[in-house]
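Weekly modeling sync, notes
Attendees: AB, CL, MP (scribe)

Item 1: holo prediction request
CL wants a bound-state model with S-adenosylmethionine before deciding which constructs to order. AB pointed out that an apo prediction alone won't tell us much about the pocket. Agreed to run with the ligand included and paste results into these notes for async review.

Input as submitted:
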Amino acid sequence: MNAHASQSAREFELGGVVPWGRRLSEYRAFFALDELASGSPILDAGGGPSSFAAEAREMGARVVAADPIYALYSNDIRLRFEETAEAMRTGMRRASYRFNWSYYGSEEAVHKLRREALDLFLGDFERGKAEGRYIPASLPSLPFESGSFRLALVSHLLFLYGDDLDFGFHLASIRELLRVAEELRIFPLVNLDGLPSSHLPGIMNALWREGAETELVPVPFEFQKGATRMLLVRRR
Ligand SMILES: C[S@@+](CC[C@H](N)C(=O)[O-])C[C@H]1O[C@@H](n2cnc3c(N)ncnc32)[C@H](O)[C@@H]1O
């Protein structure tokens, strides 16, 4: 680990993968999404307390989110969010220089969006569970039929937590996502230190050898400096 990486490791002390959710407008930017309302459903893998599924429903689109935290009660999810918010506040202050603030403007604005996302998500959670839109599930194994989704999205889980989740987990998860969806998009491709994921080249190579199409696609969003591309994977 170089000096910068070891300094960064102290900046975000999250203690594992945390429930920290984004809004639909952010998902649109991460994944260069325009079309939402047409076609078969979209899977939000590791959707957590994001309001993507809730907001998509309001727009008439069907998004199914899968995450282990959907086995918890709303109050417990809120509690975990509050613990995360504190760690994020500390981390973001320490690591402020590593972010491009042009999209959000300030740390307060980021927190406001996260809270909005949490409230929209929790407001939809019980109805969404009853409608089969929030499914308790953990990668690398998903309880869906093959080809259930036209698109699967993974935001802020794979690659970002690459120091906690190993190469085998990444490859098995991506294979599983390609089983259930025709196309997969993953963002960001850097780790919590803001460094390019060490798993990415090997993953792209393995997928290419297995006959999948992979592409690094520029997106209209940058927060962690340099994280300006998503990984797009398609079955051939
Ligand atoms: C940082 S949050 C991101 C939430 C959302 N995708 C977003 O960007 O707003 C990461 C989420 O990944 C979930 N997660 C952790 N391990 C997982 C696994 N094995 N399979 C699916 N989701 C997982 C966590 O519960 C958490 O909600």
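Recorded for review: The longest helix spans residues 107-130.
Action items: CL to compare against the apo run; MP to circulate these notes.
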